[in-house]
Write a structure and sequence with these properties.
Helices cover 46% and strands 23% of the residues. It is an alpha+beta fold. The longest helix is centred in the first third of the chain and has 53 residues.
Length: 151
Amino acid sequence: MKLNIQNFFFIYIFTFLAYTFSIFSYSFFQQEEKRAEVIYKNLNTSIKELSYNLSKTLTNKDELLKKRALFERLVANDDFLKGILIFNDNKLLVSTIAYTNKIDTSKKIKYDSYYEKIKNIDYLSTNIRFFENNKPNNLLLIYLLNFRTLN
């Protein structure tokens, strides 16, 4: 094959475009990963803060109904939250959405990146520990996630 100016220019432009595309692709995926990390850490902090506040203010399970407006406000202000559920064992105590399904909290999968994590998980959960009549009590606080709004 004879390399003339036209072929050289074509190869040069193609190489330049491929290199530019690969740089932009790499930076795009890095940016997506950082964005997913910020979102995940923000939601994780939010659920931990809510659990802490509830554990400090609750004296019995009946007070959860008084806090329903707080839960509704949290869901309304966060685009990535679909709902908040609070369980006592397997009994649903408070829900911000009409939810009838059971949540399988037994499977724990490790993901390599935050982007994979937020694309594949359906909920975040933590415990609410409080004392009722000097007896320790545990409730399960679950954030149902809505990452379809991510894209």
